[in-house]
Amino acid sequence: MGHAASEFIPVSLAILTVSDSRGEAEDTSGHYLVEAAQSAGHKVADKRIVKDDIYQIRAVVSAWIADENVQAVVITGGTGFTARDNTPEALLPLFDREVEGFGELFRMLSYEDIGTSTIQSRAVAGIANQTIVFAVPGSTNACRMAWERIIVEQLDARHRPCNFLPHLRKK
Predict the structure, then answer these.
(1) What is the 8-class DSSP label of residue 150?
(2) Strand locations in the chain, DSSP E?
(3) Which of 19, 32, 93, 125 has the greatest number of C-beta atoms within 10 Å?
């Protein structure tokens, strides 16, 4: 397969919410990501919530990276600057390659909404074991912006001139 295909190819995703305070009932960001992925035609293989702990995050994401049924992971939460925001530290050692442009583009788009406060967003992405991993802030608005303006196109085989599907494990 080249950089773009002529037809839609569904991707199998896992969604992780990182939060010390949200349970399933309050997880509006995680619910948004599940609905957005399904509406786009993708399959949600798993959804979980973990505390903002490097090792809990790393354990769940590592299992998904090793899972043949997961091609992409979207994480919401834990990307800020407080002492309890550990998502980037949990993920970076797992990546075979970091997608530097993701954080840069996220912050550029986020600037339109929150101005200079976007510099405190540590949104990151990378590829690990042929699985793309995106991590965005915990607010539903941030998830919506990241999904609608970046992630949905990069998970669409038809998006030109390139997308991440050629780099993902085949199902």
Answers:
(1) I
(2) 12-18, 43-50, 72-76, 97-98, 124-128, 131-136
(3) 125
pTM above 0.90, yes or no: yes
Q: % helix / strand / coil in the chain, to the nearest 5?
A: 45, 20, 35
List, for residues 71-86, the tens digit of each pLDDT value: 999 999 999 998 899 9
* Spatial contact of 143 and 29, defined as CB atoms under 8 Å apart: yes
| Size (the chain), residues | 171
pLDDT tens for 97-113 read 999 999 999 999 999 99
Q: What is the spatial distance between Cα 4 and Cα 160, in angstroms, rounded to a whole number?
A: 6
b/e map of 72-106 (b: 16 or more CB within 10 Å)? bbbbbbbbeeeeebbbbebbeebbeebbeebbebb
